[in-house]
Amino acid sequence: MHISEGILSAPVLISGGVVAAIGTFIGLKKIDLEQIMPVALLSSAFFVAGLVHVPLGPGSVHLMLIGLLGVMLGWAAFPAILIALFLQALFFQFGGFAVLGVNTVTMSVPALCCYYLTRPWIDNRKTRPAASFIAGFLAILLASLLTACALALTDTGFTAAAQLIIAANVPVMIIEGCITMFTVGFLAKVQPEILHLEYA
Amino acid sequence: MNRPRILTALLFAVLFSFFALPAQAHKLNVFSWAGDKKIYGEAFFSGGRKAKNVPVHAQDAESHTTLLTTLTDEEGKFQFTPPQQAVQQKLNLLITVETGDGHRGEWLLTADEYLSAASDPTGAAQPPGEESAIKESAIKSVDIEAVRAIVRQELNRELIPVKRHLAEGREKKAGLRDILGGIGCIIGLAGILAWFQSKKKKKTSTDG
């Protein structure tokens, strides 16, 4: 999902950077002392998850845990993803520094959408498993679409890019759905306060 | 109250880093070398997956004008004869591969590399003209040229796996050190943020 350096045009890169900066600013404002550790933890998880390859489907894809980040962090997913992407570019040569803004947006916006769309159902014990699966699944789908948009704004046709990326990421969507479902279920039992749930 | 949370955090981090150990960075790699009269290359993702049927562009490294476009085959390999313009002007070739889903890799093949491999082995090095030279020595020198050409060809063939290895060695692999370094950075940043916030909290509590 990381767009490589040297593909996107300058306007796309700049607008990506601006949106990422605004999101990160809001995200940082929303982090209080209690939330710092969860944010750092999920940022590390995202950073490392990029190394876990999914050897299924046509492309070369890896885990991202965007849905999990969104559901657990809300707006704070922006700084968490930005830092993790920066470190991935630094250590693993994923993406690059010029495309950092665009990559942050294509992964954080889906996280935020998942937060607003599925969070009410995650707070409800009965609908929690289904809602968290949908969050994991939907996040990758949205991120694929946003990546395709970013590519289409430069030169590649939108449908061609979207088809390629979504086809490659279908296994990831299902795996992330399951991971999100189990992680949220586990945390709700063991550490409900990390999810800001009111009951144990 | 806070201790179990931090313990869970550490547990998760350790779990994830072990989970990730055998994996490698996710990046599109290209490497290319010059064989006899042709340029060969391969494109693959760093997990080892081949990039199949993907467009390959040979560009002039300075002006970035595309001189030639071809496709990789089912095994991610490609080959092409160096474009006329590049040979005449001795251009360094920037070989780029783009998968269309946002991955891009490039490889610089300098003019020296492909021109020395492509130089015509038969006769071109021996300009005709000095007919008056002693016949025997002429035959000898032709022989030397022929031998030189054969040696060059053989050497090229033998060196291809070596060149390939060298090219693969250029790829940086992510190891445990990188992973732990990254996690360390994140924890450090969290610490800085926590410090600032606790300072702010203290200030407001003393003010109020």
From TrEMBL, chain A:
<keyword id="KW-1003">Cell membrane</keyword>
<feature type="transmembrane region" description="Helical">
    <location>
        <begin position="39"/>
        <end position="56"/>
    </location>
</feature>
<feature type="transmembrane region" description="Helical">
    <location>
        <begin position="130"/>
        <end position="153"/>
    </location>
</feature>
<protein>
    <submittedName>
        <fullName>Cobalt/nickel transport system permease protein</fullName>
    </submittedName>
</protein>
<dbReference type="InterPro" id="IPR002751">
    <property type="entry name" value="CbiM/NikMN"/>
</dbReference>
<dbReference type="Pfam" id="PF01891">
    <property type="entry name" value="CbiM"/>
</dbReference>
<feature type="transmembrane region" description="Helical">
    <location>
        <begin position="6"/>
        <end position="27"/>
    </location>
</feature>
<keyword id="KW-1133">Transmembrane helix</keyword>
<keyword id="KW-0472">Membrane</keyword>
<dbReference type="GO" id="GO:0000041">
    <property type="term" value="P:transition metal ion transport"/>
</dbReference>
<feature type="transmembrane region" description="Helical">
    <location>
        <begin position="94"/>
        <end position="118"/>
    </location>
</feature>
<feature type="transmembrane region" description="Helical">
    <location>
        <begin position="165"/>
        <end position="188"/>
    </location>
</feature>
<dbReference type="GO" id="GO:0005886">
    <property type="term" value="C:plasma membrane"/>
</dbReference>
<keyword id="KW-0812">Transmembrane</keyword>
<keyword id="KW-0813">Transport</keyword>
<feature type="transmembrane region" description="Helical">
    <location>
        <begin position="62"/>
        <end position="87"/>
    </location>
</feature>
From TrEMBL, chain B:
<keyword id="KW-0732">Signal</keyword>
<keyword id="KW-1133">Transmembrane helix</keyword>
<keyword id="KW-0472">Membrane</keyword>
<feature type="signal peptide">
    <location>
        <begin position="1"/>
        <end position="25"/>
    </location>
</feature>
<keyword id="KW-0812">Transmembrane</keyword>
<protein>
    <submittedName>
        <fullName>Nickel transport protein</fullName>
    </submittedName>
</protein>
<feature type="transmembrane region" description="Helical">
    <location>
        <begin position="179"/>
        <end position="196"/>
    </location>
</feature>
